[in-house]
């Protein structure tokens, strides 16, 4: 029996991977856009729709990063609204464990699980940097290395709250006039949180809503191995995916968990065409739309940590080397280039080897996992990746809002179904049932 593939739909929206200038692109904020994508994902029998969270607009060299599409509505409000226009699709939202409180998050996710009949998931993130936290008047709050301690105790506390009501606590006996047998009480005392009281919501349909984790450091992986149901990762290529998969799955045994208890779902994008050549040509066009000249210079400045605005994006790399001591120029984005000098060395070598301009180099160096081809080819490649343990499935990030997922749902999914590796209909009603058949 081949592995069954898990699929999620990432609502695009706050970075240069979205081609917002395309005539077909719609609003990032209107509910109609969220509804369109959710309905498409449900038509394609996806496991869940996924919303990321950005708590502060990113900045580059002191200005709002204009390659980002600004304006991301509140996660749980959008998901609550989506629960009313879908009936099976899982609803996953990102909420930071650094800038929230366990009681509040437990209530929000619990409410979503009740409203949706057991379809809620929480993506626990520690959030990138102090800059993000300034909106909360806690700019310097928690060093990066201390955030997982808080995240772990945060999640433990949330789980205690979710478990605080017995499954049969709500009696609702109209004859006897007994509504509730016993409310859920909790007491949590630890280094991060010291709270006690009654939780206001009874046990939810899933009991424990699904927990997703998205940090990539050693601590992040360990946290996921101990506590998460799903990891959302950036390791989407075959070799990188397999290395990540092996590393994370081997950590599970220490926590008494099996390989099937934690699903690995990297982000991936896709470009479809009637022929392979057409798909590749279209993919190239999309990358040029995503990385415009000004965006290319910004990417380079992120690595060089210098003002390079005088350079021509269609010309060669600057002769000047990166500044090893400078502060990053970009704030609010996860710092992908911690060692900027080393990254610059690799980029320079790549540009020299392939004779690339700045823009061509940025396109080459920043392209993430993409499935490109005819719908049938893409279905086969996705399946090969999953069967060869590069992942358990993918979180698909379309480049158009809101219609970018339509072709995948309507043209690729049927091929996956024919291969016998993807459901032809939902068999359960909760997200936990979709993901784990239990
Ligand atoms: C694939 C992926 C997606 C992420 N999505 C978000 C997000 O939506 N919102 C957010 O605040 N942080 C997000 N993060 C940042 C993580 O929460 C975390 O702060 C960051 O990766 C640093 O932790 P690490 O060193 O363990 O990777 C994401 C990280 C990864 C790897």
How does the helix and strand content classify structurally? alpha/beta
The average pLDDT score comes to 93
Rough outline: globular
| CATH architecture label of the largest domain | Alpha-Beta Barrel
Major sheet characteristics = 8 strands, parallel, barrel
CATH topology (fold) name of the largest domain: TIM Barrel
Unreliable sequence segments: none
Q: What's the assembly state of these chains?
A: single chain
Number of domains: 2
What is the string of SSEs from the N terminus onward? EHEEEHEHEHHEEEEEHEHEHHEHHEHEHH
In the CATH hierarchy, what is the class of the largest domain?
Answer: Alpha Beta
Radius of gyration: 23 Å
The overall strand count is: 16
Query: Strand order of the main beta sheet, please?
Result: 1-2-5-6-11-12-13-16
The CATH superfamily name of the largest domain is Luciferase-like domain
Key descriptive features of the protein:
alpha/beta, 438 residues, eight-stranded parallel β-barrel, TIM Barrel, binds flavin mononucleotide, three-stranded antiparallel β-sheet, 14 helices, 2 domains, single chain, globular
What would your notes on this structure say?
Keywords: Flavoprotein, FMN, Monooxygenase, Oxidoreductase. Belongs to the NtaA/SnaA/DszA monooxygenase family. This is FMN-dependent oxidoreductase, nitrilotriacetate monooxygenase family. Residues 24-388 form the Luciferase-like domain. GO terms for molecular function: monooxygenase activity; oxidoreductase activity, acting on paired donors, with incorporation or reduction of molecular oxygen. The chain is of the alpha/beta class. It folds into two domains: 6-271 and 374-436, Alpha-Beta Barrel (TIM Barrel), CATH 3.20.20.30; 276-366, no CATH class. 37% of the residues lie in helices and 16% in strands. The strands form four sheets. An eight-stranded parallel beta barrel has the order 1-2-5-6-11-12-13-16, surrounded by six helices. Helix 2 (75-83) packs parallel to helix 3 (102-116), helix 5 (147-162) packs parallel to helix 6 (218-227) and helix 9 (293-304) crosses helix 11. It is globular.
């Amino acid at each position: 029996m081949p592995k069954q593939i898990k699929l999620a739909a990432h609502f695009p929206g706050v970075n240069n991977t979205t081609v917002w200038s395309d005539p077909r692109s719609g609003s990032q904020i209107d509910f109609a856009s969220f509804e369109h994508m959710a309905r498409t994902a449900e038509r394609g029998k996806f496991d869940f729709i996924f919303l990321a969270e950005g708590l502060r607009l990113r900045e580059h060299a002191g200005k709002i990063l204009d390659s980002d599409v600004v304006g991301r509505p509140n996660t749980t409000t959008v998901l609550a609204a989506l629960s009313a226009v879908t009936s099976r699709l899982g609803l996953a939202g990102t909420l930071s464990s650094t800038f929230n409180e366990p009681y509040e998050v437990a209530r929000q996710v619990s409410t979503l699980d009740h409203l949706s009949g057991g379809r809620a998931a929480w993506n626990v993130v520690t959030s990138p940097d102090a800059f993000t936290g300034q909106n909360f008047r806690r700019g310097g709050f928690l060093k990066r290395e201390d955030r997982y301690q808080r995240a772990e105790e945060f999640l433990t506390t949330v789980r205690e709250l979710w478990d605080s009501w017995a499954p049969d606590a709500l009696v609702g006996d109209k004859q006897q006039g007994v509504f509730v047998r016993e409310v859920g009480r909790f007491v949590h005392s630890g280094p991060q949180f010291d709270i006690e009281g009654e939780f206001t919501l009874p046990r939810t349909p899933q009991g424990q809503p699904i927990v997703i984790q998205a940090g990539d450091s050693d601590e992040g992986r360990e946290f996921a191995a101990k506590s998460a149901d799903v990891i959302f990762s950036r390791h989407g290529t075959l070799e990188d995916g397999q290395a990540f998969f092996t590393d994370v799955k081997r950590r599970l045994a220490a926590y008494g968990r099996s390989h099937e208890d934690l699903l690995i779902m990297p982000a991936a994008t896709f470009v479809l065409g009637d022929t392979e050549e057409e798909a590749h040509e279209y993919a190239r066009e999309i990358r040029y739309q995503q990385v415009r000249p000004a965006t290319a210079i910004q990417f380079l400045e992120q690595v060089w940590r210098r003002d390079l605005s005088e350079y021509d994006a269609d010309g060669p790399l600057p002769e000047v080397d990166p500044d090893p001591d400078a502060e990053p120029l970009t704030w609010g984005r996860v710092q992908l280039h911690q060692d900027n000098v080393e990254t610059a060395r690799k980029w320079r070598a790549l540009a020299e080897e392939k004779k690339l301009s700045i823009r061509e180099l940025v396109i080459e160096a920043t392209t993430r996992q993409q499935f490109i081809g005819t719908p049938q080819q893409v279905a086969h490649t996705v399946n090969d990746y999953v069967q060869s343990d590069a992942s358990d499935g993918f979180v698909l990030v379309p480049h158009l809002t809101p219609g970018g997922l339509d072709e995948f749902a309507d043209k690729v999914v049927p091929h996956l179904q024919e291969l016998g590796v993807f459901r032809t209909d939902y068999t359960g009603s909760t997200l936990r049932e979709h993901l784990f058949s239990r």
